[in-house]
Amino acid sequence: MTASPLWHPYAQMHTQPPALKVIGGKGAHFTLDNGESLLDATCSWWCMIHGYSHPRLVAAIKSQADSLCHVMLGGLTHEPADRLANALVRITPTGLNHVFFSDSGSVGMEVAMKMAVQYQVQKGHPEKHRLLSLMRAYHGDTSGCMAVCDPEEGMHSLFSGYLPRHHFAPAPTAPFDAPRSAVEDDIQALRRVLEAHHHEIAALLMEPLLQAAGGLNMTSPHYVRAARELCDEFDVLLIFDEVATGFGRTGKLFAAEHAGVTPDIMVLSKGLTGGYLGHAATLATDRVYDVFLSDDPARAFMHGPTFMGNPLACRVALESLAVFEEERYLEKITMLNEILRQELLEDPDLHAHPDVEDVRVLGAAAVIEVYDSTSLKGAQAFARQHGVWLRPFGRWLYTMPAYITTPDEMRRITGVMKEWFRIETH
Ligand SMILES: *Cc1c(COP(=O)(O)O)cnc(C)c1O
């Protein structure tokens, strides 16, 4: 067999077994070329929130393809982009009134960071050109994003000599349901970094409530609220990266809603199109947008990805939102959350297992964290034998299922996750 020229992500091509070949999918399952059907516990890096082959999403793409597949947004506009921008303003926290499209989560974050730095320059603060991020953060794989990912665990330490230097505050440690007093240490740690460095910080970036790729690290809405207050106190913009948390993952449409907070800039991607096409949106408040208004063309926001506002992506995003609202997805997410809590959080045997350090659940996301990553070696192959696609990373065995996952399917996923610890021998 000749090796495929296809270079896979995060893969040691020398040692990794050949990738499984997917030929189709329906609902929460995808199908391999050998006829095997796998229940996807990860909904393809958390984006396929409606599952595979959703008839309404597929139809939306087909009908849009018949009229307009692509046109640039430079000097031109079209109905899908206008409608999606309006829809996003309607559903996101009050005050985010302006929408800049791009083609992926990483680029959406690049747009947010560039916007924040230019905002500060045009406000007369060119010295505020660094960013403040959190340890355990993940904001994407492009250079600008790598520089605000966790510098040690974020897969990017190799590039530290190449990347710009930013500031980092400790990752919050208080859990989602912690009382305010238990979050005080996390908040004070953030305050200390701002006190020391605010004069050179343009913006604080965070994945509100759920640091997803950082190991599904969860925090309290009190922390998010305090971050808003601290940013106002120190004249620093607040950027929410809701690429993973947006569109229901934490149990509300956006994680920001748990805290009742409007960030200055917010980034959406992954679930935006229901995963059917790559796209992202960077939203900004009037406060940010107005600083770019001037008679001077040089004060405009100088950015413009070729595929921003792609009509197919906008059209399928509109359909995704319509399905989300009409089919009451937030109720489906509540149902999935109840099962995840019952089956994982409230399982005493799982907590008592010597390899298990912690079990966390928030919305339609759950993780079993182990002390040592070697205890998850073989878990993926084990799950496959049971018809489930799990893709643990580091010390984290997790599920972030499609919202159309049925109760039985959800229990099959949690069953396999628990069964791994029952059969496992060390
Ligand atoms: C996936 C992700 C990104 C990057 O999105 P891409 O579309 O892969 O570039 C950024 N931030 C968060 C929180 C993510 O989960």
Automatic annotation (TrEMBL):
This is Adenosylmethionine-8-amino-7-oxononanoate aminotransferase. GO terms for molecular function: adenosylmethionine-8-amino-7-oxononanoate transaminase activity; pyridoxal phosphate binding. It is an enzyme of class 2 (transferase). Pfam families: Aminotran_3. Keywords: Aminotransferase, Biotin biosynthesis, Cytoplasm, Pyridoxal phosphate, S-adenosyl-L-methionine, Transferase. GO terms for cellular component: cytoplasm. Homodimer. HAMAP family: BioA. The modification N6-(pyridoxal phosphate)lysine is found at K270. The record marks Y10 as: Participates in the substrate recognition with KAPA and in a stacking interaction with the adenine ring of SAM. Pathway: Cofactor biosynthesis; biotin biosynthesis; 7,8-diaminononanoate from 8-amino-7-oxononanoate (SAM route): step 1/1. Substrate binds at W45, Y138, K270, G304, R391. Transmembrane segments: none annotated.
